[in-house]
Amino acid sequence: WWSPNPRGVLRPCDLVVHRSLQRSRRRYELRIDTNFEGVVAGCSNPDRPRGWIDSRIVTAYTELYRLGWAHSIETWDEKGLAGGLYGVAVGGLFAGESMFHRRIDASKVALVALANLYDGQEDQLIDVQWCTDHLAGLGAIRMDRHRYLHLLPSLLAANGPDWTNAYRVEGQGTEGH
């Protein structure tokens, strides 16, 4: 288990969606769990700097997906899979593993869709591992390990999205989920 200290986290209700990102949302259709393997492959691209997703990680997360624990949020356009993210969902926690984009804002749009799946209660959290400048601009914060571990039991026990019915969050010309 990768456990950076401090840990990057994002409360779904604290997501910041700038006007330009709002416009970008209209360019993509969003899907959930329709191409998990494609998202993992996009994230594991060996040309990416500091790539860490090897065949062992791919095998493990593909099995977690098969068991219903891992999920992908995918952004699609007329050229195909434009970007996305994947991670593990347990209760009110989504532990994001990685995200990628092939076209502008495609991964950010996937993150907005993920946040929209959660209903914004206090006991929900998206674990983004690192609070990069990019993620901080979207509302992520740094949380020390002690506080994170203290919150973990209530997050795991909280209600999360119904992943079985969340196949399409929003698409071209539709609003909401």
Sequence-ordered SSE layout with sheet pairings:
Layout: E1 7-10, H1 19-25, E2 29-32, H2 36-43, H3 55-66, E3 70-77, E4 80-90, E5 93-101, H4 106-117, E6 125-129, H5 133-136, E7 141-143, H6 145-157
Parallel strand pairs: 5-6
Antiparallel strand pairs: 1-6, 1-7, 2-3, 3-4, 4-5
Structure summary:
By secondary structure, the protein is of the alpha+beta class. 32% of the residues lie in helices and 25% in strands.
Note down, in words, how this protein is organized.
The chain has helices spanning 19-25, 36-43, 55-66, 106-117, 133-136, 145-157, and strands at residues 7-10, 29-32, 70-77, 80-90, 93-101, 125-129, 141-143. With 177 residues, it is α+β, with helices and mostly antiparallel strands. A seven-stranded mixed β-sheet has the order 2-3-4-5-6-1-7, with helices on both faces. The longest helix has 13 residues, at 145-157. The chain is globular and about 45 Å long. Residues 169-177 have low confidence and may be disordered.
